[in-house]
Amino acid sequence: MTSKTNMTSMPTAPSNPRSQDESTTVQFRIWRGDSSGGTFQTFPVAVSEGMVVLDCVHRIQAEQANDLAVRWNCKAGKCGSCSAEINGQPKLMCMTRMETLPVGQPVTIEPLRSFPSIRDLVTDVSWNFRVKKKIKPFKPRKPDNADGSWTMMQEDVDRVQEFRKCIECFLCQDVCHVLRDHHKHDEFIGPRFLLYTAALEMHPLDTEDRIADLKNNDGIGYCNITKCCTKVCPEHIGITDNAIIPMKERVVDEFYDPMTRLFRMFKPKG
Ligand code: SF4
Ligand code: SF4
Ligand code: FES
After folding, report:
1. Domain boundaries 20-123, corresponding CATH code
2. How many CB atoms lie within 10 A of CB 109?
3. How far apart are CA 66 and CA 113, in angstroms?
4. Please, which residues bridge with residue 52 across strands?
5. Per-residue pLDDT reduced to its tens digit, 134-166
6. Ligand 3 site-directed mutation target among 70, 82, 112, most atoms within 8 Å of CB
7. Of all protein residues, whose CA lies closest to atom 4 belonging to ligand 2?
8. What pTM did the predictor assign?
9. Which residues line ligand 2 (CB under 6 A)?
10. d(Cα 45, Cα 11) in Å, to the nearest integer?
11. CATH superfamily of 126-266
12. What is the full DSSP assignment across 144-177?
């Protein structure tokens, strides 16, 4: 995630303004409050063709509630800042077009519910950054060639490429029931960081071993493959099939298959 510089700044004009007579009025129910509690407040917004939910929030901020707190940065689906729950679904506000929402019904916007509230639509996601710091970093093997370069198979490089698309929006963390409903933040790192660990573990140059951490510290056993995380990922990363399941298989191989364990003892990684 990039820096969240626009938490309460005044908005720019909506990206695709059209004349007032081409607009429709939509009621927005926006959660207002902080860690001590809050309530929904309703705002009518003139919505024109091409507007996204973030445009509407900016219009509300500009015209009706200057103190409405909302976090955003790129308005292009790349910084991961504008995550919220729109009609109960974790989404990026800047990538949710108004025409994709049910016509004639109010639009409800709430902050991410798996993290503590700061104010209005802004949550404290710093837990994620603390989790990331605890994961063992990339540890490359010595160069393969005299000129200091490495030789890798293209298919090994391609396999982790998908994982690098993550924008750290934390929508997957928000939707995961282990965090959202069971509050296992002390025992489970969540899908984003299972993915991050998989990216390191599958990196063709990496020599570190994080498999014991996945089992003992990161709570991979809590994941029961519901795939809710995969469904909400705006980058369409195969979080469950391509990252979490292979990591679960490595944990099983390492700790529950004596032959594989013996083999790995004599064939160190990398
Ligand atoms: S597949 Fe696992 S990590 Fe993803 S939402 Fe379900 S329980 Fe959470
Ligand atoms: S894996 Fe997808 S949903 Fe999860 S933080 Fe990265 S981009 Fe967001
Ligand atoms: S503002 Fe950057 S992802 Fe929405």
Report:
1. 3.10.20.30
2. 24
3. 23
4. 97
5. 999 999 999 999 999 999 999 999 999 999 999
6. 82
7. 172
8. 0.89
9. 166-172, 192, 195, 232-235, 237, 239
10. 15
11. Alpha-helical ferredoxin (1.10.1060.10)
12. SSTTS-----HHHHHHHHGGGG-----HHHHH-H
